[in-house]
């Protein structure tokens, strides 16, 4: 089969799995199925009421715009959210396939990555259960834009980067990556033509959403930044944050974390990857309770690192990929039927532990002790496998 045929088959299969898991997990009952943030985006789409949204919600205009297109066709806001999420998931899978192809990665590793995306709790399954949120679309468009930077430096790439900056403030990671890549290649004129429009769009969205220059200045106040980052001073927040960072791409990232030098080598070979970190990490640091939803914006970075890992271990992928698949299933637990309680317990544990949401679960501590043990045990197993091969 050609690459195109393989990618088409993977995207179709991923869509079927996503739909099956979405049907199995059900829908949130919060706000009649729209989720905590859904009514805000619904007001933007149905009533064209931009004043109903806070500055943070306005920073992702691509989601209400895409939802408005779907709503014009189907006339139902919940269905419109779901349509946008399904399309976003397909874009994310395609972007992953595209990246793995551009990096000349073994097909088996690409299949494992797509399988991981299918069962990934954040942002895939959580967006299926709670459709009124823009994070899946944001991650998908950023991943697509970054892959496009590896493919071409033409007008299509420039358009995709504009889409990324409209999808999320974290979308600035896309053009920054492209700028670093072209700067290193000393292609400054091309860099300006392709990526300057995306940066201008990002600034324009920030200016509009924040209410002008005063809002931007207020955003950068030291006291404001310190207040936004205060959660990272709490041990529980750090613990849950590290768990999601280690398992961001299921067992594949656990494999990579078992050999940190491989991450360093990947960055040394491709220094522009730093742009995907320095542009996302500040948002994670200041994301507060939204950190679990922001962490997946690191996926484009991990796609490249996993590709580098796969090329280094191309001759012995069977055992580690089987181990990775098992760890993915254990850390993402896609068989769990989501309820409003399980949604927060599984994917926003700090909010539950700190009483930030009105959710209680008698088995919370036991559940998360097991999950921490699985992550730590998986990391130890991956280290043992690597040492057995040296």
How would you characterize the overall build of this protein?
With 390 residues, this protein is mainly alpha-helical. The chain has one domain. 74% of the residues lie in helices and 0% in strands. It contains 24 helices and no strands. Helix 8 packs parallel to helix 10. The longest helix has 26 residues. It is globular and about 60 Å long. The mean pLDDT is 93.
The SS-based structural class is mainly alpha
Helix content: over 70%
Mean pLDDT: 93
Parts with pLDDT < 50 across at least 5 consecutive residues: none
Overall, the morphology is globular
Biggest β-sheet description: none
Report the strand count: 0
Number of helical stretches of at least 4 residues: 24
How do the SSEs run, as a string of H and E? HHHHHHHHHHHHHHHHHHHHHHHH
**What's the oligomerization state?**
single chain
- Rounded to the nearest angstrom, the radius of gyration is 20 Å
Please write out the topology:
Elements: H1 3-25, H2 38-46, H3 55-58, H4 62-74, H5 77-102, H6 107-119, H7 121-129, H8 135-151, H9 155-167, H10 173-184, H11 188-209, H12 213-219, H13 222-228, H14 235-246, H15 250-257, H16 260-269, H17 273-278, H18 281-285, H19 291-294, H20 299-312, H21 318-332, H22 340-347, H23 349-353, H24 364-388
Helix pairs in contact: 1-5, 1-6, 1-7, 2-4, 4-5, 5-6, 5-8, 6-21, 8-9, 8-10, 9-11, 10-11, 15-21, 15-24, 16-20, 21-24
